[in-house]
């Protein structure tokens, strides 16, 4: 996998060989297509009514679309601390960067832009209690959609994503 160091982040970028392999393994008629479906469910949640198997080669070559090690670490920190806060570098570096030994928490009550929250009930990364808590704290909540039968990736790749999510987002953008 191609890696580059940018602003102290290790990026996991696009790899044409991995993309080509995903395309071959996930195509219609491939004996390994079932494995691709299983990996999709493991990566985002079980949602058989939303997966378009013929689109798996495209999904496999575009998801994930690049990420960073630090992003994953930050996500883990948010889970283990149960706080919505900046990245924790450790006490010494936190003092240097933030002027305090612990990372400051984000204050979402100061957000002024309208916020739309879309989450699937089968999303393995989002618990309804957490999303409800966040939605209650956002001062300008324009939309909160809890979508039955959708997993994490279905918000982008699901069969019904255009009618259930995309059209609504476009409508919201027109209002705000």
Layout of SSEs?
Elements: E1 3-6, E2 9-12, H1 16-26, H2 33-44, H3 56-62, E3 67-68, H4 69-81, H5 91-98, E4 115-120, H6 128-137, E5 141-147, H7 154-157, H8 161-175
Parallel strand pairs: 4-5
Antiparallel strand pairs: 1-2, 2-3
Protein name: Alpha/beta hydrolase
InterPro entries: AB_hydrolase_fold
In words, what does this structure look like?
The chain has 176 residues and is an alpha+beta fold. The protein is built from eight helices and five strands. It has helices at residues 16-26, 33-44, 56-62, 69-81, 91-98, 128-137, 154-157, 161-175, and strands at 3-6, 9-12, 67-68, 115-120, 141-147. The strands form two sheets. Strands 1-2-3 form a three-stranded antiparallel β-sheet. A two-stranded parallel sheet has the order 4-5. A hairpin with a 2-residue loop joins β1 and β2. α1 packs antiparallel against α3. The longest helix is centred in the last third of the chain and has 15 residues, at 161-175. It is globular and about 55 Å long. The N and C termini lie far apart (40 Å). Mean pLDDT is 87; it is low at 1-12. InterPro entries: AB_hydrolase_fold. This is Alpha/beta hydrolase.
């Amino acid at each position: 996998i191609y890696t580059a160091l940018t602003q102290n982040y290790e990026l996991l970028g696009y790899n044409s060989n991995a993309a080509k392999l995903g395309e071959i393994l996930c195509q219609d008629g491939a004996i390994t297509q079932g494995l691709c479906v299983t990996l999709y469910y493991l990566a985002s949640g079980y949602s058989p009514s939303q997966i378009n198997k013929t689109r798996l080669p495209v999904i496999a070559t575009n998801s994930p679309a690049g990420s960073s090690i630090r992003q994953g670490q930050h996500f883990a920190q948010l889970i283990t601390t149960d706080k919505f806060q900046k990245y924790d570098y450790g006490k010494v570096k936190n003092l240097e960067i933030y002027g305090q030994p612990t990372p400051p928490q984000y204050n979402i009550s100061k957000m002024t832009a309208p916020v739309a929250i879309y989450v699937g009930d089968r999303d393995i990364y989002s618990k309804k209690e957490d999303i409800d808590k966040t939605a209650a704290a956002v001062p300008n909540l324009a939309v909160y959609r809890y979508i039955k039968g959708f997993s994490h990736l279905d918000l982008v790749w699901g069969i019904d994503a255009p009618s259930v999510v995309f059209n609504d987002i476009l409508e919201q953008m027109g209002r705000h």
